[in-house]
Amino acid sequence: MLIGDIDIHPFTDGVFRASPAYFGDHARPDGHEDLFTRHGMAWLPIGCFLVRTRDRTILVDAGMGPDIADASPRRLLIGGQLPLGLRALGVAPADVTDVVCTHLHSDHCGWLFDTDAVPMFPDATIWFGAGDWDHFVEGPAAMREHIRHGLLAASQSGDRLRLVSGDTTIAPGVTLTLTPGHTPGHVCVIVSLRRPARVAARRRDRLPGPA
């Protein structure tokens, strides 16, 4: 998909199989057979996007990682496909200039670091909502330990982390806007033909640590 000269490619890190109960105690597949297509389950992608501008290669969401989260029958998540998806697009990990995590649930940040907390995208700046740092990294919410350790190490080693606390343009035509709710720091990515002047004027981001 092209928006002006910005190229967007959707791809997937794996599959998320969900029972009706995942969507609520009273949810039923009846009347939604187009969604619950096999054995009464919904089969959803663990979605990622690659956004290419003239000089930036931006990964939106870092998938599940090479992991399985099995809480059957309610839900099952199987990751592991993100590197293959990038390779199919002709992108190596070192080509990625920015990684945007819309939030820090495990199926959106799983490829940020390997199990030794080494960055998977060695030259990338990592962007996410400041509220998620407080909630996941320094707070009580569940997070894989190697991801937490990687983020903490990155916060001490330079300017690789950018914690967004207001609408922020990260590249011409690519803007992050805060949409808290699903998580405290949830952000959405807006790709547009023109850089919004009001957002450019209000750009606010911070490094981890005290405000």
Short description:
Helices cover 17% and strands 33% of the residues.
Poorly predicted sequence stretches spanning 5 or more consecutive residues: 199-203
User: Helix content range of the residues, please?
Assistant: 10-25%
Could you tell me the radius of gyration in angstroms? 18 Å
In oligomeric terms, what are we looking at? single chain
Q: What about the largest sheet?
A: 11 strands, mixed
The SSE string, one letter per element, is: EEEEEEEHEHEHHEEEEHE
Percent in strands: 25-35%
Distance between the termini: 38 Å
**Mean pLDDT across all amino acids:** 91
- Specify the structural class: alpha+beta
- The 3D shape can be described as globular
Number of helices: 5
Per DSSP E runs of 2 or more residues, the count of β-strands stands at 14
Explained architecture:
The chain is α+β, with helices and mostly antiparallel strands and 211 residues long. The chain is built from 5 helices and 14 strands. The chain has helices at 82-88, 106-109, 130-137, 145-156, 197-201, and strands at 2-3, 6-18, 36-38, 41-52, 57-60, 68-71, 75-78, 98-100, 125-129, 161-164, 168-171, 174-178, 187-191, 205-206. The longest helix has 12 residues, at 145-156. The radius of gyration is 18 Å and the shape is globular. It starts with a strand and ends in a 5-residue tail after the last strand.
